[in-house]
Amino acid sequence: MLTADELGIRKELAENIKTLIKNDRLPHAILLRGSSAVTRGKVSSYLAQAFVCEAENKPCGKCSHCMKVGINSHPDVITVDPAVQNEKTFKIALVREMKDDAYIIPNEASRKVYILKSADKMNVQAQNALLKLIEEPPSYARFILECESSSAMLETILSRVSLFDLGTDSDGVSDELMRKADDTAARLASAILKPTEYDFMKITAEFERDKELFEPVLPALQLIFRDAVIIKTGSDITLSDHADISRAAASKLTLKALIKMTAEIDNFRESINRNANKNLLITRFSAVMRSAAYER
Length: 296
Hints:
Elements: H1 11-22, E1 29-34, H2 37-52, H3 64-70, E2 77-80, H4 92-102, E3 112-116, H5 124-135, E4 141-147, H6 155-158, E5 162-167, H7 175-192, H8 198-209, H9 211-232, H10 243-252, H11 255-273, H12 278-294
Parallel strand pairs: 1-4, 1-5, 2-3, 3-4
Helix pairs in contact: 2-3, 4-5, 7-8, 7-9, 8-9, 8-12, 9-10, 9-11, 11-12
């Protein structure tokens, strides 16, 4: 069985997941975004094991629950995948089937876990149906949503799930660059909260000199504002190492602005994946982020 440190995700996220599991504070609805489908699948399986494992140190990897999850045979861990039905979109019928099943008590474990593949392919009707379920779920139900990008997901969904940003595949990105990106993201987030644009523009100018820095900054910055969304909605489960900045953002910005900012960052990340002109993206980034923060 893989440990959290062997999932192929950021060290900080792995540590946060371990802490949440240890304290029995895993959120009931989790959105896994980014990386590869294989990595998302590994993380989903690990979290599902943690949800159903009954050992003291979860997931133990040895009990019947963990072993059944490992071979995809646990009756209380249900994978909902539109591709299995040869569907290109995640339609409302799948959500309705899941909802009907969710109100049937677990067979073996104390919890029932639903892993939703390609959650970003849900149409609006399916997302609205899912929203009602994750807002008022049965006490034993847990939901793990997988997506490559969350840009197509409704703001109402994003505000009610805990985002675990798996980032892009980090091969070839040095630890030094990742540390620099995290520091730059923290400075950017703080600068956005200031009344003047000077500090923000000064930091974004660094991208002109070091264009390789721009891409890894985006997921780090998004995580800070994602945590602000969670704090704003009454939770204290933060994943970034900059919870103080997230709390400041939550106190100064509206929920609408925070969600808008995370969505805009998603758009920039998608544009990079489409090999858009990075110079133009950097220029647009400077204008869009502060506008999103203080849009009325």
